[in-house]
Amino acid sequence: DGQRLTGAELKMFFFLLVIAGNDTVRSALPGGVLALAGHPDAYRQLRARPELLPSAIEELLRVHPPVLTFRRTAARDVELRGRRIAQGDKVVVYHVSANHDERRFPDPFTFDVTRAPNEHLSFGQGPHLCLGAAFARLQMRAFFTEFVRLPPVRLDGPATRLTSNFINGITHLPVVW
């Protein structure tokens, strides 16, 4: 609204970026490695053409969103696709499901590092867009720029997933070069 943040608001904004971004980026990076290792043709394509990294990062976020769900409270009565949602109702967005909606994504179960447009909902949308989305993308770009320069990895066992209803995390991802 054009107003400066107060000292307390600035501290909370910094806290939000550091803490919230820590869990989400920490989940997005191994999720991206898992997606690439699980799709060797796309992985080879990205290694051969690193200029695809911006679209590849969006695809990594689409197929392995760092946040599983977000709950919101309806601010007013609305009808959505024939369903009535009353003011005060709780509504849950399931990012993985939304990111595989065939009405929005042609061939949604194909991992495509060249997918464009790629309007995934992994960072939310509109007034609920993640404040750290640009910073998260920057961190992912830095990591995957170096990752695709390394010798190719392959999985050396199953991933161990974080037990969480909120964060789509991986706690152990064995890989070998």
Task: Please give a structural write-up.
- The chain is α+β, with helices and mostly antiparallel strands and 177 residues long.
- It contains five helices and eight strands.
- Strands 1-4 form a two-stranded antiparallel sheet. A two-stranded antiparallel sheet has the order 2-3.
- Strand 2 and strand 3 (83-85) form a beta hairpin.
- Helix 1 crosses helix 3 (53-63).
- It starts with 6 loop residues before the first helix and ends with a strand.
- The mean pLDDT is 93.
Strand order of the largest sheet: 1-4
Strand content: 5-15%
**Percent helix among the residues?**
40-55%
Unreliable segments of 5+ consecutive residues = none
Please provide the count of β strands: 8
Strand/helix succession: HHHEEEEHHEEEE
Average predicted local confidence, pLDDT:
93
Main sheet characteristics: 2 strands, antiparallel
Instruction: Calculate Rg over CA atoms.
Output: 18 Å
Concise description?
Helix content is 40%, strand content 14%. By secondary structure, the protein is an alpha+beta fold.
Task: Describe the protein's topology.
Elements: H1 7-38, H2 40-48, H3 53-63, E1 69-73, E2 78-80, E3 83-85, E4 90-94, H4 95-98, H5 133-147, E5 154-155, E6 160-161, E7 170-172, E8 175-176
Antiparallel strand pairs: 1-4, 2-3, 5-8, 6-7
Helix pairs in contact: 1-3, 1-5
